[in-house]
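Risk register update: the risk of archive-format incompatibility is retired. Evidence:
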Amino acid sequence: MHALRREFLDGPETPDLVLIHSTARPAGSPGTVLSRSSIVVPATSEPGKREVRLFFPSPPGGGALRVRYAFSIVSSGAERFSDPYETLLPGPETGDDAVLIGEEGGGNLPPAPGRGTFRILLPLREGEPAEGNARFGFGAMRKKPSESLCRAALPLDGKTPPVIEVPEALSVLKERPMPFFLYHATEGGVGLVADKINSARITWRDEEGDVVCARMLWSCGSWDAPNLTPLEVKRFSGDGSPSGYPFAEDREAFLRGRESSLDRFPLPRTHEGYLFGPAGSVAEYCFLLLRRRPDGTVAAEWRNRDGGNWTIRL
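Archived output:
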């Protein structure tokens, strides 16, 4: 697995939100997409600086990855996109920003078909070391716990636990993600640690029919590992899944096609999605909506609970 660190400098105006949208392909096979993601770039302790580490699967059979990415900035009621960038992993341009994360046994279990990943801080326990290495992995509910399931390793820096990517689900039953376990073990720690990963269905109700795309900004335990989840109208079919919006060559045409598909659904429309985290933890969330204004333009609007975000215990 490859990891790539990217930075973003805010400039004179501080954005509400910065996202990085990336696509990874084998360097010798441009028609094959290995991963595609939209990740929140969180702020650092240094004013005006944001930083994120992106994770990419290694190409089957080895070799280099070609990564294409762009930033989007939500500010002043709009979402604006940067020009795209490209880089090679490993390659001369990335230097120390790129590292290869060791994996055993073919790597950790992948998400269930049609599901993605989410980000959390590795849930270290009291008594576990803050430095050294940590191994982590995943297992189904009926799978016997074993350190052999922890197939990826990350260094601990002695400060904040590392951000990891976790499958939204290893299996799905009746369109609902099923619980599973996140395992980890640290050098000189307390042995194998298990966290049951639960999910919660979250909805946004569109009364007026002007919401083109609904997304949920959320975190579980710490805003050092935020997530942005696209919400979809149940049984939606047609052009324009909201996760594809940042990657469209013509985003206005994309939104027009999506609106045409949404018109087949009566009002009010319920957009739904899931958030995830360890059992017993508290997730915090709000909504980022793309709405069609009467003049035909698209506005990016936040929806929060009065006095703050919504919370839910998993």
